[in-house]
Design brief:
Largest sheet: 5 strands, mixed
Oligomer: single chain
Helix content: 55-70%
CATH architecture of the largest domain: 2-Layer Sandwich
Strand order of the largest sheet: 2-4-5-7-6
Length: 347
């Protein structure tokens, strides 16, 4: 509030000073000498303009004109500036004309009318600048308020989506371990240890909005080790990770979710097994993550089996808006899921 008040007085003093200097320059160009009378007139104009415009502002605040619509505001402004134009003319006549002519002054309507109109137009310009400043200021406040509300809403929605990840992941992992209990108890015990490592890391990472790709891939490696224990030679893992991508920030558990989705709905359903391939590269300052899995993508089954897909789309939209992209399609007898994520500096 104090800054706003200081800004107002700075604008008032600076604005009227500039106007007086312009009037003085025009007088000089018209051949008038810089006399004491001219300086007195200019100083009087400065004080009159400053006082009347401040009085005008007090009326605006008192009558709460800032809350009015444009249609209701315009007639009030026009009436006010015409009235104030008359007031300024009277003050100017009393302070400048009469005082300088030693009270020998004759009122001439033809001289008075243009001066009233000139002052009214000057006050109209003052009104436009004043209301424009407040409109922009209020618009920014409203925009900030809306952005805060949107951020809060997105945060709630994002946390809700993230809260679904761990239960879903645990459910799938426990199913994998359950399948090993009868077949190979020792492997099942080892798988439980691997699961505890995955859960510990995923719980820590799940509290963050973005994590380095290298940290995310450690979770993926732990998960794939768990699944490798189950599927053994039926699961082939291929990774092509460019070193310069490992510090790039990505949403936690997003790659793991897509890999998990690929194994559950693709590779695990094939009698002969299949492969998971993860590729990363930088392209135009964006991270491109491509995940291939054996199988076939069936769009019609998304509502039943596409938790990972829907979750990925929702999270990307909340975190990056339209700056990120996710696609999934069939390519060369494999399912290709691709993420394009902008760098944090591009947001």
């Amino acid at each position: 509030m104090l800054i706003k008040k200081k800004l107002y007085w700075f604008a008032q003093l600076f604005g009227w000073l500039v106007y007086v200097l312009i009037v003085g320059v025009f007088n000089k160009l018209n051949g008038n000498d810089l006399t004491v009378e001219l300086l007195y007139s200019l100083f009087s104009i400065f004080l009159i303009g400053l006082s009347v415009s401040h009085f005008y502002r007090a009326i605006i605040i008192k009558l709460n004109w800032m809350s009015l619509s444009v249609a209701h505001l315009i007639p009030r402004v026009i009436i006010s500036i015409l009235f104030l134009g008359v007031i300024v003319y009277i003050l100017q006549t009393l302070i400048i004309e009469i005082a300088l002519s030693n009270y020998d002054y004759t009122f001439v309507l033809a001289d008075a009318f243009p001066k009233i109109i000139n002052w009214s137009l000057l006050l109209l310009l003052w009104s436009l600048l004043y209301f424009l400043f407040h409109f922009i200021n209020n618009y920014k406040k409203e925009e900030i308020k809306n952005l805060k509300w949107e951020a809060a809403r997105n945060e709630i929605e994002l946390n809700k989506i993230k809260s679904q990840l761990n239960p879903h992941f645990i459910f799938n992992s426990m199913n994998s371990i359950r399948a090993l209990v009868d077949e190979n108890p020792d492997l099942a015990k080892n798988a439980i240890t691997q699961l505890s490592n995955v859960l510990r890391n995923s719980l820590l990472m799940g509290k963050k909005k973005l994590v380095p790709l290298g940290d995310e891939l450690k979770i993926v490696d732990d998960y794939l080790s768990l699944e490798k224990t189950r599927f053994e030679e039926k699961l082939n893992i291929i990774k092509k990770i460019e070193p310069n991508t490992e510090t790039f920030l990505v949403p936690p558990l997003m790659i793991q979710t897509i890999v998990e989705n690929g194994i559950k709905h693709g590779t695990s359903k094939l009698a002969e097994g299949g492969s998971i391939e993860i590729q990363t590269k930088l392209m135009d300052d964006k991270l491109v993550i491509t995940i291939y899995n054996s199988g076939k993508y069936d769009e019609s089954k998304i509502p039943e089996t596409g938790f990972g897909i829907l979750n990925t789309i929702q999270r990307l939209q909340l975190l990056f808006g339209n700056a990120a992209k996710f696609t999934i399609e069939n390519e060369n007898n494999r399912v290709k899921a691709q993420l394009i994520i902008p760098s944090k500096t591009q947001l």
